[in-house]
Amino acid sequence: MEAIKKKYNERLGGMILCVMHRMMAILFFILHTSFFTLSAQPLSEQEIIQRMAAAAGEIRTVQCDFTQTKHTKLLKKEQVSKGRMSCQLPDKLRWEYLSPRAKTILLDNSKSHPSRGGMEESMARLIMNSVTGKSLTDSSMFQVTAEEKPTEYVATLVPQRKEMKRIFTKLVLHFDLKQSTVTEVELHEKNGDQTIIELHDIRIN
After folding, report:
1. Which of 29, 49, 95, 122 is most buried (CB neighbours < 10 A)?
2. What whole-number distance in Å separates Cα of residue 50 and Cα of residue 39?
3. Which residues contact 72 (CB under 8 A, 6 or more apart)?
4. Residues 89 and 60 sit within 8 Å (Cβ to Cβ)
5. Gap between the Cα atoms of 48 and 120, Å rounded
């Protein structure tokens, strides 16, 4: 009788251990899954905008090369320009075209040289505001929406001011997560033309 009871208790103990082991495994799986579900939760639109603006706020100077590609409805062939950009925040920018023709635009405290106004100056100013984060935080200038992608944040800016609305329907900023800065700007014009500016070899201090 004692042997039967002992065998029964051993079997019961083994079953309890087995059940506990399975319960622990299930609990670990639930906790593990919950952790990664929470950590992988997508950022809200406002959080993305705040992160982009915060990263831009850390920048003091930027130097880079750029490639500007313009797609027009009238011309089938793309117009490609290349140059260099040097930006000293918050208000100084040197936008230098090297090819196919040389031209330099200087912005300093809202004063520009050598020209006053014009598309190229408008684009240079927009690039500076994009790098500094001003375009993201000034609601009087743009209505901003944003989304998170695997390697970048993408912000779409819709102009709110009349003078800007006459030229552009929207701007799209591509913020590279690895470099923590804007690396590409799309300018969509009201007439259907589109300009893409890609920033290369970015050096930030």
Report:
1. 95
2. 18
3. 79, 193
4. yes
5. 29
Which residues fall within 8 angstroms of residue 81, CB to CB, at 6 or more apart? Answer: 67, 68, 70, 97, 99, 100
Residue pair 188/169 in contact by the 8 Å Cβ criterion: yes
What are the pLDDT digits (tens) for 136-195?
A: 888 888 999 999 999 999 999 999 999 889 889 999 999 999 888 899 999 999 999 999
Q: Are 187 and 45 in contact (CB under 8 A)?
A: no
User: Beta-carbon neighbour count of residue 186 at 10 Å?
Assistant: 17
Top pLDDT among 160 and 7 is at 160
Tell me the C-alpha distance between 122 and 111, whole Å.
12
Residue labelled with tokens 């290349």: 82
CB 185 within 8 A of CB 169: no
3-state secondary structure of 162: helix
pTM for the model: 0.74
A 10 A CB-CB count for 22 gives 10
d(CA 25, CA 17): 12
Alpha helices by DSSP H, 76-160: 119-132, 134-137
Q: How many angstroms from the chain centroid is the CA of residue 163?
A: 25
